[in-house]
Amino acid sequence: MAEKTINEMNHTELKKYARELGLATVGTEEGLRKKIAKKLSEEPEPDEDDGLAERVNSECADMEDEEIVDLLKENGIEFRSALVDMVTKAVREGIIKLYDEVSVKKKKSLPTLLEYVDKIKEHNNIENKKMTPERKKSVKAAIGEAESRFEAEELTREDMISALDDYFGDYEKNFGRNSDKEIFEAYKHITLLFIDDDGEAHEKKDGYAVNKNPFCCARPLKKTKSELLKCIACGNKYENE
Ligand SMILES: [Zn+2]
User: Fold this and answer.
1) Do 92 and 119 have their domain in common?
2) How far, in Å, CA of 195 to CA of 136, rounded?
3) Ligand 1 mean position to 201 CA, how many Å?
4) How far is Cα 94 from Cα 97, in angstroms, rounded to an integer?
5) Span from the CA of 142 to the centroid of ligand 1 (angstroms)
6) What is the mean pLDDT of residues 68-94?
7) Domain containing 66: what range?
8) Which residues are CB-neighbours of 180 under 8 A, at least 6 positions away?
């Protein structure tokens, strides 16, 4: 601000100051003083903000994030774009991964349906030395039954896909590209993995042995940190016998 206060300024000085502020310079001394005072009150000096940030900070310290968001919303302040800017910055710095990037990675690391079948079919190979005679008998019978139902079209693509969806759950495999025969292969092998070493078929969430390996939900159990075995499908835990 000028060194003199507006009350100390003469008419010429007031006109000059008014021009500096972008105001019209016409009018009496008193009129100019009023115009200048009004203009100055609209543009507070930066010095007047001193300590404001601190005061706001201490006031906000006791508020939940939701309360701050509500306060901004209630007063019609656009805060979303500020948040989106922060997310953009975090993505650029690699702190946050975009969902697209994460899911693309995930899809790549998952085996295709045929790769999955390749991985599990050895458990159902009747030449497998570890297969008990009881399981071999039941596996052979189950293969025969499934094949004849598939050939007689009693076992439809929809039935099999529904079973596969149930088995794969969250993996959301896209079966659309697989032929009926491929879907059948996957369906058959997964069904056979429910048959235990005694030749008995199991339901989900029930532990059993397949070729002496611990299984649940037609999947081999995984070791956990605590030495327990865990089913990755249903989450049941079993003692490692
Ligand atoms: Zn299970």
Assistant:
1) no
2) 10
3) 14
4) 7
5) 21
6) 80
7) 62-106
8) 157
